[in-house]
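Full entry
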Amino acid sequence: MKTYLTLEKSITHKSNYDGSLYKSYVTSFFSYAKSHHTINDFYDEEGNVYIPEVYSFCEKKIDPNTNELFVRADFEFEDDEDMDTFLHKPLYFKEPAWFQDLANEEIVQLDCIFEQYEPILGPLIERNNISICINGTVQINDKIYNLSKPKIYDFFDEIRTNLGSEKTYKPLLSGACSSRYTLHLKSGKVIKYSGDYALCDGTPYGCKRYTKLIVDDLIKQVYESD
């Protein structure tokens, strides 16, 4: 999925470190990712790559009618690359297509597999299969429980928000859990991802909320209500 933008203006700055001059570029775009963007590369219409080195978001607004996010941002480019040639010309970066699916479709089910291993790539200790449905049904292995629909709706709302802001990774199986997820949308589309944590600001441990923690909190409510 391509997200198009134009560089609206350039701003010259003077480095406090060595007095050298460098430029940053202001742009705005619409996106379906609701919180955090990791923009690795910009492309021009010929497919040439331009790498942003530093960027900050100045403004974010969600359109309640389209569920799109308006983003205004300031970019500096790798090696102080002068991008004035691209002022007011189209550029784009790539976002996963499921950002749009997730923004516009209802989540109806989340299936999870959690595996616990002995340290240092040891044998499997435990595997839990969890299925959470929009109708309030929660299945944990061979047992079925029921939660109120408001709790389930809140759960899926948080999953939706976090997936709009996270990048997941597959952790090494060294004394931790391995987590796999299958997210089912109302249209029948499926989103699959894995990882115990979400990468927030470069570190998985910087996240206050991530998928496994959200699921664990819901399971705790299941057991408390049983």
In short: Confidence is low (pLDDT under 50) at residues 166-175, 198-206. The helical segments are 98-104, 149-163, 211-225.
